[in-house]
Amino acid sequence: SDVCSSDLQTDWLTISDIAEATGLKVDTINKYRTRNTLPEPDSKIGRTPVWKRETIETWNALRSTIEVTNN
Length: 71
Prior knowledge:
- 59% of the residues lie in helices and 14% in strands.
- By secondary structure, it is α+β, with helices and mostly antiparallel strands.
- A three-stranded antiparallel sheet has the order 1-3-2.
- Helix 2 (15-22) packs across helix 3.
- 10% of the residues are buried.
């Protein structure tokens, strides 16, 4: 399902938006994707995967607890 561009600015995050929102590097986000640690994209805009802001906020909160327990 494609997203209309008016929704884009607030509700949908690209990988670079996720990096900005979480303070991580784009490379780090891509590593999370290849390790399947990042949730599946909620949608796509053309070929670009996008995530809902809530998806990333939830994931980011869980990620910090998971990293603590995995060490």
